[in-house]
Structure formats: structure tokens, C-alpha cells
């Protein structure tokens, strides 16, 4: 198990989880989510290739509609 900081909360996941796996776990649509990983913005095409490590910080940001 690895410990990740997801949107400011400590969470445990199995080793080998990618950013894409994390998005799927939280039932988010890749078209409508922005991801920050250890302070850097992640391009959508890199979601499957970035494997998270113990202690990583991830921000999952969904747009909010308004008017």
C-alpha cells in the first residue's frame, strides 16, 4: 500500500496505481477533470503513464458551472 494526499486528504491505495486509475476510482470523466501532481499540472495524455508513489500529492479539480 502507498499513502497519497488526494485533495488534501490522506488516502491509501495499492502500489502501481496511475493517475488514470485514480480518476476511474473516483468516477470522474477525463474530459472534465484537471489534475495536479506534486505541484505540476498533468497533461491528459500522460494520465495513464504516471504511476503514483508513496507520499505523492494529487489534486483532482472538476469545473463548476455557474452563470
* Rg measurement, Å: 12 Å
Uncertain runs: none
What percent of residues are in strands? 25-35%
Structural class: mainly beta
From the spread of the alpha carbons, the general shape counts as: globular
**Overall pLDDT level:** 95
Number of strands: 5
Largest sheet: 5 strands, mixed
Distance between the termini: 42 Å
CATH class: Alpha Beta
Overall domain count: 1
Order of helices and strands: EEHEEE
- The CATH architecture assignment turns out to be Roll
Superfamily (CATH H level) name: Beta-grasp domain
What is the name of the CATH topology?
Ubiquitin-like (UB roll)
Q: How many separate helices?
A: 1
The neighbouring-strand order within the major sheet is 2-1-5-3-4
Estimated helix fraction: 10-25%
Structural overview:
- This protein is mostly beta strands and 67 residues long.
- 10% of the residues lie in helices and 33% in strands.
- It has one helix at residues 19-25, and strands spanning 2-6, 9-13, 34-37, 40-42, 57-61.
Amino acid at each position: 500500500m502507498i499513502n497519497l494526499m488526494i485533495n488534501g486528504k490522506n488516502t491509501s491505495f495499492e502500489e502501481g496505481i496511475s493517475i488514470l486509475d485514480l480518476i476511474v476510482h473516483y468516477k470522474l470523466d477525463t474530459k472534465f477533470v484537471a489534475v495536479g501532481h506534486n505541484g505540476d499540472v498533468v497533461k491528459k495524455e500522460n494520465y495513464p503513464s504516471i504511476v503514483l508513489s508513496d507520499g505523492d500529492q494529487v489534486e483532482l479539480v472538476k469545473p463548476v458551472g455557474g452563470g
